[in-house]
Structure formats: structure tokens, C-alpha cells
Amino acid sequence: MEKTRIRFGILGCAEIARKVSRAMLLSPNTTISAVGSRSLEKATAFASDNHFPASTKVYGSYDGVLDDPDVDAVYVPLPTSLHLRWAVLAAEKKKHVLLEKPVALNVGELDAILAACESSGVQFMDATMWMHHPRTLSMKQFLSDEQRFGQLKSVHSTFTYVGEGDFLKNDIRVNPNLDSLGALGDTGWYSIRAILWAHDYELPKTVTAFPDPEYNESGVILTCGATLNWNKDGKVATFYCSFLSNLCMDIIALGTKGNFRVHDFVIPFNEKVGPFYAVANSRWAELSLGCIPEPSEFKIGTDLPQEALMVHEFARLVEGIRGGEAKPEKKWPVISRKTQVVVDAVVASIKKGFVPVEVVY
User: Fold this and answer.
1) pLDDT beyond 70 at 101
2) Integer Cα distance of 346 and 38 in angstroms
3) Is 101 a catalytic residue?
4) Which residues belong to any copy of the Gfo/Idh/MocA-like oxidoreductase N-terminal domain (predicted)?
5) Where are the domains of the chain?
């Protein structure tokens, strides 16, 4: 018997939707049932250019996708300022919601989205793809190993890239009316998620933004960072995000007995393998001419790219709900909300003059 495929509808033809739609076609339990844009011509061209199935319906509106009875779930890659309206409407139409990050402009908007999903009994998940790579589980196993890693003391995460061409003038991520969080919402989201992931999603007590963030002429953040403090056991974390620095996607985690680092945590340099480096019980070599042992490289392979694993897991959850075997998995809304709460705290610290801001969940 052929395996049931969850039927996705896609709201919008953003560049990131090309990547995620490819993932839907690679995943064995998903298909693309519909795509909608503000113009029928754009939706038609998008479906053709990205090799959608011949059965995919195209609409000249987002409402067309949401009203389609052959759509089980929607992927929403729209600008962040549109998430509240369309994610809530999707949930009200009983469509499961895979929402691009940042999920909202603030936690108040996200709460409205999550409330709509809970009321309708639909699954919510944000599209932070690296969470679904098997490397992420392997790194977590090392972090949790008390003999090799010990107690977590510090995490630093960086995600930067240079906005090329007319990016800094015309991209939606630097438009205050579309994605007013700028680099913080785009690249900062990933680094904040990495820090929370390393801390088993225990929220910090305070967040203090770095002074002198960089802005464009419209006041959108192009570069920023912050320190996160737990006020216990000496635990501290920092992140830095930017549209103005060379491509960098690092996590460095330091423990009392070991440490690890990964150089491509957001998007693996090779989609078939994700490496990371780890070392335990380091000490100086004789005469301090080096250190032993040297860090080991671990290469974690995968048959499917991380975005396909993401939609596969989302579809698996949807299928369980649809079959009456399960209820929506609550960990994903909680993780999203905690990430958004920290984003909000960074914004508040910047606005208050880079003072420590208490993190309230």
C-alpha cells in the first residue's frame, strides 16, 4: 500500500520557498497540493520553475490555498509582518502550520498564532531547519555526556553573511514594513535558538545587548549581539549576528571537561554530511608545545537534507493528528516561544540603552 502523503499548500513564492518546496518533493511522506501568490502568473511560473507535480493547483491569492480542501498543511514563508494574519487564518481553516522564522514581530503576535493553532487542534512548527539534522542529535549527546563534556559553562554562536547586490536596499529583511527585526530576526534567531538548545531550553535570567548595533537608513538592524546570563553556576552565552560580515555559522560550547564547535550549523557546507569537532579532558602536552588529545572530527551523514527531514517530521506529526492517534506536539510551540522571548529581550535592551533586561516567559 502506498504511504499516505501530507498535502502541503505554500503561501507565497519567496526564495526560501524554493528550497523548502524541493524538500517537500524529496520527503517520502509529503507532496505539494497547491501554491498561491498575489498574482496567478507568479504562482504558475513558480510551480513550473520548481518542478511541482502536474496535479499542483495554483492560485492568484493566499485565500485560495487556505480554502482548498485538498490542502492538509501550509508552509508560510511570507514576510514576518504578515505572519499574524495568515498563520492565524490558516489555523482557523484547520490547516497545520509550518511557519518560517522569525515567527513573529514579538511574542504577543506569536501568542495569537499559537492560540489559534491550539484552538483548532493543528500542529505548529517553525522552520528552523538545522534542528532536524541528525548531527544536531549527535552534538546534543556529546553535550549531555557528563564524563566527556561535564557541566556547560559557556556558549557562543555567530551567524553572519554579507548581503550582496541590492540586498541592503531592497530585500524584505531590511524593510521596516516587512521584516523590522532585520538581522536579529533572520540570523540572530538561529544563534539564539542554538544557545537555548545547548541549555536544554532553560531561559536566561537576563539579556544585555551589545552597544553600537548597526542600522540601515530606515532604522532596521544590520548587526547586533547580546550576552545572556543565567546567574548561576557561572553560565553565560553570547551571540553575534550580521548582514555585513563574511559568512560564518559557528557554535562553540565549553564545558568543565570538554568542548565542541561546529562551523556550519545553520546550513551544512555539504548537505549529505554534517561535521563537528569535539574534545574531552584536554591538557597541555610536554613543555606546553601543544595540547592532547587533539579535537576529533565527527562526520554525521544523512540520506535526506535537513529541510526534507524537517518537513518529513512535521508531516509525521500531522498524520498522527489526522488519524486520531495523537494530539499536536507541544514542544515545538514552546521552543518557538522561548526563542521569541529572547529576541524580544534583545530588542528591549537595545531600546533601553543596552541595560540588562529580565527575561519573562
Assistant:
1) yes
2) 34
3) yes
4) 6-125
5) 6-128, 131-306+340-358
